[in-house]
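agent> step 3/5: call structure_predict on target 'LRC34 protein' (Dasyornis broadbenti).
agent> reason: downstream docking stage needs a structural representation; sequence fetched in step 2, passing through unchanged.
tool.input:
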Amino acid sequence: MSVLPDLHLQYMQACQNLSQPENPFIARVLQEADKNDEISTKGITLKLAGNNHLVPVLRVTDDDLGVLVSILGQAAFITGLDLAYNLLTDAGAKTMATFLQENSTLWYLNLMFNDIGTSGAELIAGALHRNESLVHLRMTGNKIGNQGGMFFASMLKINSTLEKLDLGDCDVGLQCVVAIAIALTQNKSLKAINLNRPLLSNREEETTVHIAWMLRNNSSLVELHLGKHEMKNFGVERLCEALYENSSLRYLDLSCNNITHDGVKFLGELLKRNKTLEILDLNANRIEDMGAIYLSEALATQNRTLRALSVVSNNITGEGLVALSHAIQSNIKLSHIYIWGNKFDRNTSVAFSLLIEMGRLELGCTDVVPYEVDGEVFLAEQSHGLGRHRYWAPRCAAVAPSAANASLEIVAVSEY
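tool.output (status=ok):
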């Protein structure tokens, strides 16, 4: 049986050799890793996220990262690295890019919400031209800009290993989104991509047209996030036309757009015929009662594949919400629904209270919980939703059910 290296000891020695002060946060995480008995058989993710509210942390800097990667080169059992919410800049990105070119065991890398810019994005994307191990990369919140995003679009034409890529909130522009859509017509390995909140200068929905064209030709993508794209009913119609020909997409995120009930009418027709879509996120649009009724008609009568639906903050009143509750009673497959932020009335409260009481809707699968005051039923909010773990992760393993997590375990996508 092979003897595992002492990561903490190696780290202290590397700090002395490089004349770099020891970061107590990194030291503590490495000490915990050394105590892990399953480290040699399962591999581990070093959780060095700087937004840990349970324990005060000294956030990781570029110099800290240089010392850390110097000891990880021989640690093949380190398969994941979570460096979210730290102080890494383009200099840190250069260090990480060099590591990715030389490392063949890292599956998961989380760099979200650091200070990496365009030049750092170029280096990391360039490293992935040759890297054949990384499966999941999160760049969320790094302001790499349109040019930085273009480097990742070029990478997608070459890399055949990456399965999940998160470029949400990265200030990418129209040119980048179009380039990624074009790249994904040829890329056969990527299964999930987050393109939330691009900076779009026009309102002609050119990006949505290109993404729709991509969906007609792509047979590998299962998860697509298009939140804050300023998408209107025209764009939804283009996506629905494409999805009639697509048999792979299972999770579609259209949150925070400008979709009304006219756009949802196209989605309703799609749901009547689509046999693969399992998760639909319409959070923060304006579908109103008519849109909810279109969805409920499709779900109650013909669709038997959708598992989770979010209509949070859509200006829906009791009429539409009660219609959705009836759809849940008819459709056994629909197990998760999120409705908070709409206009609840007594009928809504009674309908969803009944669903929960009879066991048709589990408390962990919705964002409301009933309570009673003076004999009258009301609904209170729970902190559940499709984006529950999109910007943070619990210290323990991801919490079930999977439909409450940002990246769903609905297909056999490699995990870290």
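agent> step 4/5: record observation. The CA atoms of residues 204 and 235 lie 9 Å apart.
agent> proceeding.
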